[in-house]
Amino acid sequence: MADLDTGRLLAALEPVAEENLNRHLATAQEWMPHEYVPWSLGRDFKELGGEPWSVEQSQLSPIARTALEVNLLTEDNLPSYHREIERAFGRDSAWGAWVNRWTAEEGRHAFCIRDYLLVTRGVDPDELERARMDTMETGYDSGDKPLLNVCAYVSFQELATRVSHRNTGKFTDEPIAEKLLIRVAKDENLHMIFYRNIIQAALELTPNQTMRAITDEVVNFQMPGAIIPGFGRKAVQMAMAGIYDLRIHHDDIVQPLLRQWGIWELEGLDADGEAARDQLAAAVAALDAEATRFVEKREERAAKIAARKNA
């Protein structure tokens, strides 16, 4: 079967988009970002005669500060994400309605995380603002991914963001921050389900084309926050802490979605589809092996540090 162009894909999958939009609207619970921010802890900064920020004011550990900054700056780039999703889905029918609803829900994530960090003086607000400006000026560019690649990528990315928020909440060791990030993670999970279900339907509609899209996104996956200043160093710190690492990416992101889609049991693929699945299997196996090596090295490093402390 020949690949379907974007127009035919949008038309064929529009009933699925409408069904999942309606499911989402019926499932999503209204919540108010301001209810999750401890406003009573806030006070003026230097410009209004208050005290400037200093690190001892933060009750967060260094790794918790790093993870919250990365998560927030990732959320900050929503205008770029909206542009990419609208380019792929368009403004019409259920597709356009989803784009607007998704954007509205995503928008509150940055609001409440930033409010929490400023009110509690959790991170350096000047550095945070400079990083926000830098990140948004750089923007996010998907390279004009085709429709199915967009849906496959965002399926993985939304689930990864959910896990990152959830694990960051645990590492804050601060009940209000964890409650806030649990709430944000719930949104991300519902968003993932929408895109996951689009891909599920696409596998039935055009299996070879969709298999190639899934394979490409697993092989080339990169978090949208990769453009954040210092992201590489910060991502390593988060991985070393166990907030988000290759093992989590393999076990909690890639494998669950591939199982949900029934990738390994899918029948009826042509030669191109089978080649894509073979490439996918090799990529997942390589990711698993790399994750194992990373965890072993991390454990060895932790053991050496513990031994030095006990010497």
UniProtKB/TrEMBL annotation:
SUPFAM superfamilies: Ferritin-like (SSF47240). Keywords: Fatty acid biosynthesis, Fatty acid metabolism, Iron, Lipid biosynthesis, Lipid metabolism, Metal-binding, Oxidoreductase. Its cofactor is Fe(2+). InterPro entries: Fatty_acid_desaturase-2, Ferritin-like_SF, RNR-like. Coiled coil: none annotated. It comes from the Bacteria. Belongs to the fatty acid desaturase type 2 family. Homodimer. This is Acyl-ACP desaturase. It comes from Ornithinibacter aureus.
